[in-house]
Amino acid sequence: MAEKVLAPLAGNIWEILVKVGDKVQEDDELVIIEALKMENPVYSPCDGVIKEIKVSKGEQVQEDAVLMILE
Amino acid sequence: MPFLEAMGILYLTPNMITMWLIGLLLIYLAVKKQYEPLLLLPIGFGIIIANLPEAGLMKPDTGLIWLFYHFGIEWEVIPPLIFLGLGAMTDFGPMLAQPRLIFLGAGAQVGVYVTFFVAYAFMGFSLKEAASIGIIGGADGPTTIFLASKLAPHLLGAVAVAGYSYMAMVPFIQPPIMRLLTTDAERRIRMKKSRKVTQREKIIFPITATIVIVLLVPASAPLISMFMLGNLFRESGVVGRLSDTAQNALMNIVTIFLGVSIGATMDGDHFLQKQVIYIFLLGLVAFMASTASGVLLAKFMNLFTKNKINPLIGAAGVSAVPMSARVVQKEGSRVDKKNYLLMFAMGPNIAGVIGTVIAAGIFLTMLQ
Questions:
Q1: CA distance B123 to A49
Q2: CA–CA separation, B285 and B137 (whole Å)
Q3: Which residue(s) pair with A5 in the sheet?
Q4: Which residues in A lie closer than 8 A to residue B346 (C-beta atoms)?
Q5: Which of A55, B38, B224, B244 has the most other CB atoms within 10 Å of its CB?
Q6: Is B116 exposed, middle or buried, given 0-12, 13-18 or 19+ CB atoms closer than 10 A?
Q7: What are the b/e assignments for B29-44, b being 16+ CB within 10 Å?
Q8: Burial of residue B106 (number of CB atoms within 10 Å: 0-12, 13-18, 19+)
Q9: What Å distances lie between residue B146 and B156, B198, B219, B226, B361, CA to CA?
Q10: pLDDT at B329
Q11: Do B338 and A43 touch (CB under 8 A)?
Q12: ipTM score assigned to the predicted complex
């Protein structure tokens, strides 16, 4: 069952903390989104494995953009 | 020996040296603590050079810094130009997405009026002075300078320094009040997603807002009109060059003249009075009261709405953009790390800027 990780707010992709194939647990930090000069961590919605990363560092994303897909 | 007699050192007074120390303190805070360095650094240096005897930098008509001050601030040129840049930096989206949050920006102006009243009724300040002190609670530098330069120019330096110092201290001043006035459950409220705001709305807003606000409070026109013009540059999407210049090059240029001239208004004999301590105390009261009133208003609104507001975002109604919005995000994430309040907080934050300008406009209309 694939789970999408969505951007909780608009901003810049500051850092991607995981790579494809990584095993993550619920509430692990996956990505840091920079908005208004503030670093906002995005947490994993569930346990799983990173299947796909849809964004790259420095990219501007809108709210609800798909950041990565978990499996 | 005319040369020896002309040496400044002969005319040095203890007050001047005290002012140097104050200037150095501001420079220290700017460099070491990064407290509003863009303002406090030039202000600190301005204080020092205004307290060098016989230098005449603030001598009317001829002094270099006096000319900056006269044409920049007394002529009301710099604060509106700063607003032009701020407008170009501001995204009204979060506010337009949830227009009810505008009330929070208005509610947080309570501190301005409370302080105005206290300063006038209990501390012996005149009405004009009290208004210039109260406006500190709006947490908006250029508006504070704009109002003080018109109503109480002799307090300008103290009011500006108090305002900018407290703005830098927003991350320390606000959280205790926010925690005191909210329950854990309230701080955990996750707000419902905002709707998307279209470009058309974002273009119509600055034009309509200018017309409406200036029709209601004409005295706010210099600040509001420039603020909205800058925003129109931004949102129109067709004048990227103008938007860029307004928020970067032009803003930086006027900030230099603003900071050094404000600093230079603080000569020791005028500045070192008991009044200044009162101004700093009242400024702090203003900040605290504005924070509290924003939070309490959000709680009050929750009594009537189904779609609950996280009361923390009320604290962002004091302008201090975007520091107070960041404080809200931080406080919210302390109890629920997956609660993203930042963009919601930007709504009252931006509304707070407009609210403060309107408050200043009302003071000007009533008192000038």
A1: 65
A2: 8
A3: A68
A4: 36
A5: B224
A6: buried
A7: bbeeeebbbbbbbbbb
A8: buried
A9: 9, 33, 11, 13, 10
A10: 96
A11: yes
A12: 0.91
Out of B193, B337, B342, closest to residue A36 by CB: B342
CATH number at residue A34: 2.40.50.100
Say yes or no for a CB contact (<8 Å) between B343 and A9.
yes
What is the number of CB-based contacts under 8 A between chain A and chain B?
30
Q: Does B193 touch chain A (CB under 8 A)?
A: yes
pLDDT at residue A1 greater than cutoff 80: no
Q: Are the C-beta atoms of residues B218 and B356 closer than 8 Å to each other?
A: no
Cα of A1 to nearest chain B Cα, Å: 22
The domain containing residue A9 runs over which residues?
A: 3-70
Structure tokens at B286: 């203003």
User: Cβ distance A24 to A50 under 8 Å?
Assistant: yes
DSSP string, B109-128: THHHHHHHHHHHHTS---HH
- In the block, tokens 């994430």 appear at B333
- Which residue type occupies A66? V
What is the distance between the alpha carbons of residues B97 and B343, in angstroms, rounded to a whole number? 10
The three-class DSSP label of residue B68 is helix
Tens digits of per-residue pLDDT, A40-62? 999 999 999 999 999 999 999 99
Question: What letter would DSSP give residue B88?
Answer: H
What is the number of domains present in chain A?
Answer: 1
- Token couple for B107: 């509610």
| Residue carrying structure tokens 């205790």 | B176
